[in-house]
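Exam revision sheet. Question 4 asks you to relate a sequence to its structure. Input first:
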Amino acid sequence: MAEREDLLVKLVLESHLNVADRQKLGVVYRQEIAEIVKVQVRQRGVFPDHRGSRAVYEGATLALVPAGVEITRERSCPLDPYAVAERHTKAFEELDVAVEEFIDSEWPAGIDGVKLHQ
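Answer key, structure tokens:
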């Protein structure tokens, strides 16, 4: 069981698994992925944690805020990957709801070809 959890965490954090690991993993359930994302947000306050990067992260980011959780989506300037051209933020009171929307927007067809089953 620990190996499966390790592989699921790797899939969520790295967005990639090799073929052998995919075969070991088998069927992946959406709820398993949601639980890992929630743990990451609670532990780090943000997911994915790209704070060390100088370039603008183009994708959704979950962040804990005093009022609940926010999903922020950013886009960089075409000529400057370090400057934000556009930013949209949506607030949520509940982490569960925010994580569901995050999964819907970032992984609608699965993660790196790994389908998420209900």
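Marking note for examiners. The chain has one domain: 2-117.
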